[in-house]
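Hi L., both proteins are below.
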Amino acid sequence: MSTVLAAIEADACAQPILTTATALANLFHATVAAVHAHENGAGSPRELARAFRAPLCEVCGPAVEQIVAAAGQPEVVALAIGARGVHGGPQPAGRTALEIITRLPKPVAVVPPHAQPRQKITRLLVPLDGTRESSQALEDTIKLAHRRQLEIIVLHVHSPATVPAFADHEPHATAAWDREFLSRHIATPHDRVSLQRRLGAPGEDIVALARENAADLIVLAWSQDLSPGRARVVSRTLAHSNVPVLLIPTT
């Protein structure tokens, strides 16, 4: 059977990671398992994994290599990891999380340490940039969400060059544009899908809209490229989101 893997440490961040893995397992129709990589003699999160009824695999060695190897097994459909080990204000994701998300060609949910996720997802925020690559990458996840009867909020952020000229004063034309955008990028029926459009900075709008609409999960397509000047939307979302962010590779 398919598995969602939770990479956990023996600290307070393990619980939201396991809760997120449980929520993803409901989405992917999978079971939950956990992995803990011993690097420096720290304690084991065995009791917490047991509380979630998640079998725990404890491995020794560098965390990134061990987690990527465990998540690379064919039965693993997604991984949940902590963004960083420090509670507090906005911070970039930690080194371990960044290395894993760029190396593992599978969906990875990055969980903020201050997140309070629910074990059942009811509302997804799905930003779409209007490219075919992002739409194709997110298609399977959107189909699963629709099948589970979840609410899907699609966000498209315009730049000044792409905002429709009629947007402020022609409601019928705006509604037609919205229908066309959804038809072009969402293959499922649109009965539980809504479109929100913004003009501004995508990273800021994603985090703000997720908070305004009480989204349980942000789902982002990305290229797994964190070289300078790339993945600015992903980096900003990871740094500021207070809900888990599910990253879906476009390749």
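That was the first. Here is the second:
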Amino acid sequence: MFTKINDGFWFDTDIFKLSSNAKLLLIYLMTNRNRNMAGLYSLPKGYAAEDLQLSEQEMAAVWNELSDTGMVIYDEQSRMVLVRDFLRHNPLDSPKQVSDAISKIKELAKSPLMLTLIEILKKQNSKGQLEPLY
């Protein structure tokens, strides 16, 4: 799956404030093998820690940093992550993409993050594009 990261990412004031490890984790969350077209997917935190070679303490601090900004939401019970701005960078451009995204979401375990994603999709649909969500 192809994922876009606009070069404006590096000039976003919210991104600029993040630690280097938080920037790394955010890019990882937008590009890792587990992601899907909606930015809501299953990802045990240990997978990310292993892939990024971060200690348990470093990973906890980085997750907290991204969670505190609202850029990333993690559901501990279902072990799912939602990258809030994923669709702003990677909009669903066609009915087929929307259909594919819905199919992938239906395969996921139930999570309150699905309701948050629905709100993001409603915002995208009503505006024709996504506004920054944090």
